[in-house]
What does this fold into?
Amino acid sequence: MSETNSQSEESAWYIVYTKPRAEKKLSELLNKYKIENYLPIRKERKKWTDRFKWIQVPILPSYIFVRIVFWRDKNKVLQLPGSVQFVFHNGQPAIVEQNDLDVLEQGLKDYAESLKMNRELLFQKGKMVKVIDGSFAGKTMEILKVKNKTLVVLRIPGVETVFSYEINMDHLAWEELLV
It folds into this structure.
């Protein structure tokens, strides 16, 4: 067997983008089909109108990690309800190192109360992002500025006009689409 074939047969951790609030159900389905997965969760205290309650909340909404042989197992994962697509980086399926997941898991275990996530840092001015929800779903746009909602722009080459739209950050894919 050639080295290329043996590398493509090794399992690795990949990132699956899920439908909103489908992470836990997808994790259960992956477990049912014996597909190794990791859904980083922490307990948060939420206030209802009449009481407080502790709930389990995914720290990366709409993302789950799966350990698979990509080209062999990707369709099994994508066929499950709640699964949308794999995250790609530089034209390849994004691979997450085991060490990174270990650090994430240990940090959640020991420092969950101080964990802060800064998604805004991923959405920087000039970065090209893919819109994954709403009217512009599937379109690629450039970020002009970031605040509670992200201002994205459409530039048409040859036309001296920029069209800008405010879009909720949850509607944008964080992967870099263009190098």
User: Anything to note?
Assistant: The mean pLDDT is 80.
